[in-house]
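In this supplementary section we document a worked example of the pipeline. Step one takes a protein sequence of length 411 as its only input; no multiple sequence alignment statistics are reported here. Step two produces a three-dimensional model, which step three serialises into structure tokens for compact storage. The input and output of this example are shown verbatim.
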Amino acid sequence: TIGGQELASLHHFVRSMSEAVNKSFYAWIKARKENNFAVFQQPLHEIIEFKKQEADLLGYEKHPYDALMNDYDRGLNTGITDNLFNSLKPALRQLLEKIKNAPQVDDHFLRQHFDTDKQWKLGMEMLRRMQFDFEAGRQDISEHPFTTNFNSKDVRVTTRIDENDFANMLWSCIHEGGHALYEQGLPAEQYGLPLGEYCSLSIHESQSRLWENSVGRGLPFWKYNYKLLLEYFPEQFQHISVERFYKGINKVEPSFIRTEADELTYHFHVIIRYELEKQLIAGMLTAKEIPTAWNELYQQYLGVSVPDDKLGCLQDVHWSHGSFGYFATYSIGSLYAAQLYATISRQQLSLDTDLEQGNNGAVLAWLQQHIYQYGRYYNSGELCEKATGQPLNSDFFISYVTEKFSAIYEI
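The serialised model returned by step three reads:
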């Protein structure tokens, strides 16, 4: 049992950290506005110190960062993540190098003028085709797309629309739709209990990535849905074949911003943040050293020179919230998605044909049976092994991107 003095100490810690997070968030906004990391440096230093204390309070076996990672995904730790990322890095770097030396893909047609109202209507239709239940949810507009829910009968998604960049709405809509289908598919009778809650952030991300990338960036999906684009935007797409569109939406190009990255380079953005966070929590890196370390890793992994703090280490809100240990779930979610989708493809031999005919019911039914119905009964690793027959590994994702991008870039 916790004594009164110890409890008071914990109360003080939680309150102090909450106050530090509040101060840190506004410092981050100011730093971004001024494009100057120095404005954020001291508040971030305080957050990092609090997170080190939190790791000690929570306890860990090998690395203090494990305690923070476990908060977002039960059972996840640096040992598992290091193994996954260490196998991912060389494979992705090799593939990226080949792509850099190949003839580049054209995607200019995604950056024309697209009427806002038409984009909205198209996004709503895409959600319907994904079988999002509008009797149990709705879609709205926001600056940054997100999904929120009150229960499985009230799940809300938002999208972002840019008149000059069609991809913004398209991917936010399908991505958030994937999150929403998971929430709508959780057992309603278990509401308020662990069985009625999502498994983990990694599994949640696997659901959005599976729909966005495995399905939504696949050629079979667009062989059916491209007609819809032509209905809404005939001028923009009438001279673009579905094959050319498919290549365009899968263009690979190293960039500065994580949220705008392609399916391949995205993981280097995550790995960079993971490696920095691990060092910060272990006391091997200070807040002051972040900009230099950040820029060096971007040069090392992506071959790009970060021009300023706003396009560099100030781009994410996560650190200002104290969300250390979160970033890895994005990439691990993609690895789960690839492994789950490979299993669906193996078990549903007509999957590509079904998608070409506009039938994604087999995907949804499989996810309902193997993921949604279990809520939080299993942790991520256990759920993956039950659904796919083996523990999570990076081989499925590496095979998927190698096959896909080798064909697109003819390498």
